[in-house]
Amino acid sequence: MRLLKVSFIAGILGLAAHAGIIYDNITGVTSFDRSSVGVNNLYDSFTAPSNSSLTGLEMILDAFTPADGGSITIALYADSSTSAGSLIATLATVNDSALPSTPTIEAITLGSNPSLTAGTRYWIGISTSNASSIEWSYEGKTGGGIGVSGEYWERGTSVAANSPAPSREAYQMQLTTDAGSSAPEPSSALLITGGAGLIWWFGRRRVG
């Protein structure tokens, strides 16, 4: 009985940790795209499910020429009629020399944790001012992921919906906040209810 309680509590803690992920297509089929100086900035949109602060960002990145001395700026932007709008916060600068030449999941060290408003669309974007060779991977036409459907990607002046996508899906990233959804997903709710019921049933057996 004691072991069952411990296992149930550990499971609930695991669900709570997962709840902070609001966008994730990091495991999809990968191709890549590159930001060009002042021309082809790359953006991917997401919508905050609750009032929170951005606490984590992972992206699939590589540097085509790591020794070229270039760098990218990663930033958070407001939405402007389903397009990346005004700058909200600069999140990080990544040097080409810090990345491998093959696509890799990179945990970005955030320089700030900007506040997000529930139901509001935002954009994560990368840009360069010194001819960086960094490439941001995008998902193939497989779809799926957390928070991906109904969002958009933007390259330069081209904007397209993630789903359905005529030729590809969103740029690949995972976003974490300090607050998850106010209600658990149906599968999570069933797990919680079933676990609690099982503990109650074992408890009655011990009393009887």
Total strands: the figure is 13
Question: pLDDT average, as an integer?
Answer: 79
Low-pLDDT sequence parts? 2-19, 181-192
SSE order: HEEEEEEEEEEEEEH
What is the number of helical segments per DSSP (H or I, 4+ residues)?
2
Largest beta-sheet characterization: 7 strands, antiparallel
The SS-based structural class is alpha+beta
What is the molecular shape? globular
What Rg do the Cα atoms give?
20 Å
End-to-end Cα distance, whole Å, is 14 Å
CATH class call of the largest domain? Mainly Beta
Structure report:
The structure is a single chain. The longest helix has 22 residues, at 186-207. The protein folds into 2 domains: 1-19 and 184-208; 21-183, Jelly Rolls. Helix 1 (2-18) packs antiparallel against helix 2 (186-207). It is globular. Strands 1, 2, 4, 7, 8, 10 and 13 form a 7-stranded antiparallel β-sheet that branches. A 6-stranded antiparallel β-sheet has the order 6-5-9-3-11-12, with no helix packed on it. The chain has 2 helices and 13 strands, in the order H-E-E-E-E-E-E-E-E-E-E-E-E-E-H. Strand 5 (71-79) and strand 6 form a beta hairpin. With 208 residues, the chain is of the alpha+beta class. Residues 2-19 and 181-192 have low confidence and may be disordered.
